[in-house]
Amino acid sequence: MTIPATMKAMVLTGHGDLDKYEWHEDWPVPQPGPMEVLIRVGACGLNNTDVNTRTGWYSKAVDEATTGGAHSELDDEDSTWGGAPLTFPRIQGADAVGTVVAVGDSADTSLIGKRVIVAGWLRDWDDPMNRDKAGYFGSECDGGFAEYTTADMQGIAPIESDLSDAELATFSCSYVTAEGMLDRAQVDGGDTVLIPGASGGVGGALIQLSKLRGARVIAMASEAKHRDVAELGPDRILPRSPENLRSALKGEKITVVADVVGGAMWPRLIDMLARGGRYTCSGAIAGPMVEFDLRTFYLRDLTFTGSTVNTPQNFFDVVKYIENGQIRPALAATYPLAELKEAQQAFIDKSHTGNIVVIP
């Protein structure tokens, strides 16, 4: 096919509110490097990383919950997930799915024409497990909020599936994040996993992937979203913030809390963990500052794991689960790429259960 010289793209011009996005219809189409492929984007999912990076929420100067709005206190020097400055202009979008249309001089030409999912993590493929060398697609490089994007050929996976591009674009960030969390916590069939924020993209992924490992799953979500959450297969569903969580659990022995919420309820979640239990975390959308009683931590022999940079295997395992039909997409809504601002506002407002995807 003929590759155009320009493309449509939503470009982030700086940290702040949604007005920092600019729509362009003549943005240069990127050129693949020697080991890269050029992808015509079919769909790209939204996630909290897009919101937090835009607003600079990752900066240690910010101590409030994820709101989606600009922060009055922000240090641009540590405003990304990795604690480094972000280069503008930037095309965000980590969850890109599309078709390879060209490759770099040293890349595999057999990839041309294949539908692929992009892995979120950028790696030094000579040292792929080194977290200090990791970056994120749509943060440290341009991502999928455009008609075309480039990616390292080792950081993509061809996908054989009857699912649409929009459905496939719900998996990479949410499900690989969830798989990494469960991997770090070593969840298996003997566990009972408590999942706050279960109606979100990562929460829904945690339900399915925990069940795939044979665990018992207790989900927490607002009651208006219980029907949607129930379709993902948890064993029980509780309100988002029960007045008495211990009473609501009715004697359940919680061995793992898998959390992306944090906030004021955090101490109650930790109190529910059985002796020897594990807490795994990959987010703090309700607030990063929590009350932590060290006595609960050490007297109950608890293990805490943070989970950000996942392994390449986590990504390829999720791709395998998709192809085997072992997990299902939780696609909430699609928007045209030109309406990214409206899509992200709906994501921030939690207007939908599951994932929101934009279509170039």
UniProtKB/TrEMBL annotation:
Keywords: NADP, Oxidoreductase. Residues 16-358 form the Enoyl reductase (ER) domain. The keyword Oxidoreductase applies. The keyword Nucleotide-binding does not apply. Pfam families: ADH_N, ADH_zinc_N. It comes from the Bacteria. InterPro entries: ADH-like_C, ADH-like_N, ER, GroES-like_sf, NAD(P)-bd_dom_sf, Quin_OxRdtase/zeta-crystal_CS. SUPFAM superfamilies: GroES-like, NAD(P)-binding Rossmann-fold domains. This is Alcohol dehydrogenase family protein. The lineage of its organism: Bacteria, Pseudomonadati, Pseudomonadota, Alphaproteobacteria, Rhodobacterales.
